[in-house]
Design goal:
Length: 461
């Protein structure tokens, strides 16, 4: 399993639709593919993707251009590529909820195997051959778990995912909870996976199996109790270099609340501890976790007081450059696009903070930095939008939104929405209404027209 395989790592990037590997896949309906597979004695292979799935694009540029993979799929399957957001009924039938999902189906529609996430060619072929041999997904996952050792949390997570796909929710939950409760004891560096991908898997299971959410709440409540009771403790040398690298109740508390959709609870405890003793270590540990909540509540002064924003962004840029050198070359382009997008989104949030405290010089420097990283229409629009959210937009935000709208060939209703809202906030409502009226007829999509109509109603056009 490579470092980007986790199915939860599905990140929105702005790119053209998938094109790579299109010669491999046949143009056919699913039912016709099943009929053909029956005649030819093959399986049906379906690459479920979405247009915004970055790992899908990695598969297209690597695995699905590999000659051995192309040959194997051609000889053993009827290969289809299906946009899960267009074929919703089919995706729902096969419980597709992460991308890419790589489905092997028998001609009668029965699932032969399902893989999730990025798989390198060799790994994909090993899994595909195991599926062809007739082994069930659970059998194969169990074999991998036994080979890795039952105390390997990553292998147990994969086993749990197989159980989920087969509808064995209670068994899957048991495996997931073992990983959460004991994974750190058995794998160095598991903390990051534990508080991100693993929690996402459990929360996703909770949408089908409510007891999973109850178990997360139990662990959240226990972490909260520890945060409060241990708040005055200062970090010891042992906690920095020993167990403390893995035992972080504040991180657990915040991460659990995030997956439960209860981030306000993290902010509540942060405020409680900060009011009592702002110098307590727990307050500092929680600060980063409550950033989005502080931003949402426009507590900009507080963020500025606790963060050297420009140093933080410089560190993030340096870290991105260092990590890029470690990414396999065939994945670098797509992964760097993901990381650039994430970094620009972070910069835009801090841009909003600096706009909110009216430090326009520092805000302009951040805007320039964001555009150095990615000068796309999305970045211009993002900066304009966060300027608007600050409640103190400036003419530069109009310029940013206008630039983004021009770059979209004046075809994006979302960017137009940003532009007219910035104009309205700058007391240029008449100009905003005139622009909406002039462009209204250009948009035929029902959703776009609804967005424009909403603006007109808000402004009293």
């Amino acid at each position: 399993m490579n470092w980007i395989t986790r199915s939860a790592l599905v990140v929105t990037i702005f790119a053209s639709p998938l094109l790579a590997g299109e010669g491999l896949f046949v143009s056919s309906s699913f039912d016709d593919a099943c009929a053909k597979a029956k005649t030819e004695g093959k399986l049906v292979f379906v690459d479920f993707y979405t247009t915004w799935c970055a790992p899908c694009k990695i598969m297209d540029k690597t695995t699905f251009t590999d000659e051995t993979v192309i040959k194997w799929l051609g000889e053993n399957t009827i290969p289809l590529k299906i946009d899960a957001e267009k074929e919703v009924a089919l995706a729902t039938k096969y419980r597709i909820d992460s991308y890419p999902s790589l489905l092997f189906v028998k001609p009668d529609g029965e699932v032969a195997g399902l893989l999730s996430g990025v798989h390198a060619p060799e790994e994909f072929l090993a899994e595909a051959n195991a599926i062809k041999s007739g082994k069930s997904p659970i059998e194969r996952a169990k074999e991998k778990l036994e080979a890795a050792g039952e105390n390997d949390p990553m292998a147990r997570m994969d086993y749990a995912q197989s159980l989920v796909r087969m509808g064995k929710y209670e068994e899957a939950l048991k495996e997931y909870l073992w990983c959460y409760d004991h994974g750190n004891d058995n794998a160095i560096g598991f903390t990051g996976v534990r508080n991100s991908y693993l929690l996402s898997d459990i929360a996703r299971l909770g949408r089908k199996h409510p007891p999973a959410l109850e178990e997360l709440r139990k662990r959240r409540d226990a972490a909260e109790a520890r945060v409060i009771s241990e708040a005055p403790k200062k970090a010891s040398m042992w906690s920095m270099f020993g167990e403390g690298m893995r035992d972080k109740p504040a991180l657990d508390f915040a991460s659990l609340n995030r997956e439960l959709g209860e981030e306000e609870r993290t902010l509540e405890i942060y405020d409680q501890l900060r009011a009592e003793h702002p110098d307590w270590p727990a307050v500092k540990q929680l600060q980063r976790s409550v950033f989005d909540q502080l931003l949402k509540n426009k507590r900009y002064e507080e963020i500025v007081a606790s963060t050297d924003i420009e140093s933080r962004i410089a560190g993030r840029i340096s870290g991105m450059e260092m990590v890029s050198s470690m990414i396999p070359e065939e994945q670098r382009e797509e992964v760097e696009a993901i990381r650039r997008r994430m970094l620009v989104e972070e910069i835009a949030k801090y841009y909003e903070v600096l706009m909110g405290v009216e430090d326009l010089v520092a805000a302009a420097r951040l805007a320039d930095k964001a555009l150095e990283i990615d000068d796309s229409q999305e970045t211009y629009n993002l900066l304009a939008w966060h300027g608007y959210l600050s409640g103190k937009p400036i003419p530069a935000n109009v310029t940013q939104a206008q630039k983004a709208f021009e770059m979209s060939n004046e075809s994006s209703a979302a960017i137009l929405d940003t532009l007219v809202r910035v104009l309205d906030a700058l007391d240029k409502t008449k100009e905003a209404c005139e622009l909406l009226g002039a462009k209204e007829a250009d948009f035929e999509n029902e959703r776009d027209r609804a967005l424009i109509k909403s603006c007109q109603q808000d402004f009293g056009c």
